Amino acid sequence: MAVASHSGSVFRKLFYVLLCIGAAGLCWWVSARNTEKPIAQNVPSQPRMAQVFGGMIPLSPTQLATAPEVDGFQWPCGGPTGSMIYDAQPFGSMNHKRHGRHTGKDLNGIGGQNTDLGEPVCAAGRGLVVYSGCPSPEWGNVVVLAHRIPGEKQLVQTLYAHLDTREVQTGRLVGRGQRIGSIGSANGRYLAHLHFEAIRSRCTEAGMRGYHPNGTMNRMNPTELLKLYPAPPFPDPYTEVRRIRIRETSLQNPNTPSGVPHQQGIIPVTPQQFLTP
Question: Are strands 165-166 and 155-163 parallel, antiparallel or unpaired?
Answer without folding.
Answer: unpaired
